[in-house]
Amino acid sequence: MERTISLDGRTLTLQDVVLIARGYRGQDGHQHYPYVELSEQAQADIGSFRHGLDLRIAAGDIIYGVNTGCGVKKGTIIDQKEIDAYQAHYIPAHCVGYGEPFDEEIVRAALVLRVNSFALGNSGIRLETCNKLLEIYNKGVIPFVPEQGSVGSSGDLCPLAHVAAVITGVEGQQAFYHGKLMQAAEALSLAGIDPIVLKAKEAMGLTNGATLTLAMGLLAIHDSKKLIAYSHMAAALSLEAIRGEKNAFDPRIHEARKNQHSARVAKIIRDLTSGSDRMTTSARDVCLTDEKKSKKYQDDAKSRPTPRVQDAYSFRAYAQVAGPVVKAFEYAEEVFLSEMNAATDNPLIFKSGFGENERFEAISGGNFHGEPLGQAADFLKIAIQQLANISDRRFYALTMSTTSYGLPDDLAGAINRDLNTGLMILQYTTAALVSENKALCYPSVIDSIPTSANQEDYVSMSTIGARNLRKVIKNTYGVIGAELLAAAQGISLTEDQLRPLELDGLGRETTFVYKKVRQVVAAMYEDRYIHKDFKALVDFMIKSDPQDFLP
Fold it and tell me: In which residue ranges of the chain is pLDDT below 50?
């Protein structure tokens, strides 16, 4: 049965947006996308506010972008007879994007998010235009929208103009239909869609809002929430691999600092590793074969290792690092979810009174500005990079017997051991991903280049920040996936030495994490084509829910 989502400008959820963007697998085994429509209330509100705007135009009100030019031409008055013609000039002139197209999932989400912002009525956009945007979404016409060209104010002008160019059939504009790139006019024809002629205010209304930034940010929120959960699992599994100590996660330590987010992460690590036999004093007292070799221990008791006092920072201080990440995520989540059901056009139409006393007023402002979203995207990408950084450090520690307390060097298997490289080069990959993230984490919002003859003198660059956030998240999935693979490898290579002592048991939840990794990737006792394993695990993480890794 086809799923339907009804837009009212108030109740759209993140789950709805993910479904709209990425679809779902139907009973027929094919990919489907929900049918999206406007609620009856939204249709009524859109009609009411459009009527109010038309009244103000007829009364001769001077309204920015309606009967004036845009940007520095705000003082240019457009004759009422030329208003419709202005719309036809506006859209093609704004279609100046550069580079590769946005992923289709971003464009699908943006189409619906733009209509949802209109559903409140405040934009004054006609119902016919709103329905035309939904029609191209529902019939699978995806505008070709270049990734580059937006400064995040006035909204994502340039990218959204490429969307508007599709529904108006602008010559030269392209679109995807059934995966094939073609002229937008041809795509509309094949889909049985007639182009629309825009009326007063609609050209500017279609482009005034940081909607591509929002679409990217919302999907990033969904993906990073999963990623944070995987990070906790990877940290816990690495602690199991080195037979780490639990004292660093004692609740009393975190209560003393009064950082609730770090305390929450510490509890998650305690829960994941609860009941572990490996993370005990008895297990740490065992001197593994490779630990003896690395430190040239003798058999006499005097040469045995001293009790382990504390683990390296990347293990011991994980809660103190990941706690602020969780806090940054929650801030970003609040910002993006709030924007999801907001009116971001300029100007906005407001209504007061009822019946004969009903009045409408157009007010110009700056709701299109991408700064809130840009800041949230920058904060989140910096936070996610901390998880990548600390994960890479743990992976690096796992590859040396001296820092992993006896795991085989490079986590190499014992079959033809002298010939094995193990996971040495996989750690190179994580180092490269982390280094690339550092460049991507430059805060985009701290840069502003004035535009439109200094009328638009402070812009957000929010779209750049959101694009880089998506790249950081993708890279960090690779880093965390590599650590999970490495930690599982370390456990597999040492369990035979701990099993006779009954010290090989993992925690209640890390047992399930380890088994899930092993369902996807087998232990490596001799070198093999690792890329296949690495990709399989990361792909599984992206497609799955973190709860699938737990009991």
Answer: none
